[in-house]
Specification:
With 202 residues, the protein is of the alpha/beta class. It contains six helices and seven strands, in the order αααβαβαββαβββ. Strands 3-2-1-4-5-7-6 form a seven-stranded mixed sheet, with helices on one face.
Length: 202
Amino acid sequence: MRTLRKAAILFLSVLAVCLGVVAGVEFFGAWFIAVFITAISLLAAVLFVTTAYSVFFGAPFVPTDARNVEEMIRLAGVKPGERLADLGSGDGRIIIAAARAGAQADGWEISPFLWLWSIWKIRRAGLTDRARVHLGSYWGANFRKTDVVTLFLINTQMWRMQKKLMAELPVGGRVVSYAFKFPDWPLEAKNGRGVYLYRKSA
């Protein structure tokens, strides 16, 4: 049912764009096509640049399924009032889940499209007082006051991220990674679905 709904939304969106182009040409003339193509080209360029950046300096957007989102929140032991940071927050599903658990959740997302999408989802969920997403790279963020960090990076970025979090997290800070392990950070717990829990010791 969910797949059918997404397909219907995609079809209606494409249909709306096509009708919009036809209407634009009808009312404004052939120059409308040139403006439309230019706008699409700019959007494609932004998408390409942000995707390339995420591949080389973070990870491309791959949605974490709902069961693993729940497991990440559970394994981290997120408590009301704690501060959680999701690195590469995508469509906002983890920060929304953390906010619903009572945490103050912040996400970092490099793609302006995903950033806007996650803002819309946060507002729709009524969680603007506990969840927010920052447009930009998480490498420049500081996590000294963060209790929990969640991430789904790629293997080549794990060593650099380990050094950053070991230097910045407070003692007792937890990190939950999906799919990839840190090179030499002692593992505290894991589950059978590729979710790993780490904790900063004194």
